[in-house]
Amino acid sequence: MNTLDKELFSAVETALLRFTTAGSVDDGKSTLIGRLLVDTKGVFEDQLDAAMGVEDKKGAKGAHLALLTDGLQAEREQGITIDVAYRYFATPKRKFIIADTPGHEQYTRNMVTGASTAHLAIILIDARKGVLTQSRRHAYISRLLGIPHIVVAINKMDLVDYSETVFKQIRQDFTDFYTNLGLIGGELTFIPMSALEGDMVVTRGTQLPWYQGQTLLEKLETAPVTGKINARDFRFPVQYVSRPQTEELHDFRGYMGRIESGSVKVGDHVTVLPSGLTSHIKEIVTFDGSLQRAFAPMSVTLTLTDERDISRGDMITHSNNLPRVEKELSAMLCWMHETPLTPGKKYLIKHASTTIKAMVTSLDERVDINSLEHIAAPIELKMNEIGRVSLKLLKPIACDAYANNRATGGFIVIDDFTNMTVGAGMIQ
Questions:
Q1: Can you tell me the distance from the alpha carbon of 10 to that of 224, in angstroms, rounded to the nearest whole number?
Q2: Could you confirm whether domain 324-427 is CATH 3.40.50.1820?
């Protein structure tokens, strides 16, 4: 990718940051999001007035920030978050989408759903309780999903007298655990804060003079987010073959889709997978006219210099940088359905723009998401459990390892009888 491509790619991708929040019960996730929305003027006055007008059952003072995000009646009654709630706000520097995910073990699938598209994860830790089992579980899932930036927000510092000693001990405990996970990558940032009082969330406050790092909002506004999209490997899953039935365009054959990663320009030598046919890019067509180059995540129509047999589900890539073409896969799988996964059962796999039949040939191991112990050869994979499986596909697909390319390394599992999504997988 040349300098101009990098600048264009960066301008598009850095305009929006998707982040997820996770933590143990009552660590203050909803209060933190409420604080972000209030202090960045991201809520309407009537919403804020309504939150302030409700009697606080827990005795917390000030605006009832959690009520700005816990919209479900069941959540309000229990004082917990049980679904993925998406919130939106913006500052002059960037737009944001928040996925507020539940902390309970039985909602692991919800966290996986909310975190699957995130550029950054905020893991909340109660300063009074330190690193808990759920904190470790959320860190593991965040890294398994390839989230490039992890912010450990040590909340409720007001309840430990804003102690620097407490902050340093939690930081050390979390770092020791995270290092032993054995998962590569993931930038760690530690921020002490009080979501209720507002210290180090949007403004610095006056109670943490010993901490010289960024506030949470400063981190959110400056975190590089191009890590979510692979800028190196050109991957173009074909979604539709365009053959206009008009007199002036009767010879036109275009391949429509979204560039999932990398970039392409007119004249590039490309290969169509899984067939292996080659050609060159003749034209890059968009609604606003033709381009000389395009990059992820743009939706475009590509034409080739040669007539090739290409259909939906094929993938166009650079000839000198090919993905794997596999019919048998090893993948980490988060199971999302009440009916357990058992080896030998057949499902549909939706990968990029193709949906094909597949069979689970073996369940190789299950990860205890509390102890993170790897249990070999389990009998089944129950709802909210994560494990490594082997799959055999009806036909080969072009794919990458999830750690290298989230767009072409991830897939969902569909029950071909009910058409329900029952699992989410990451190719190893």
A1: 9
A2: no
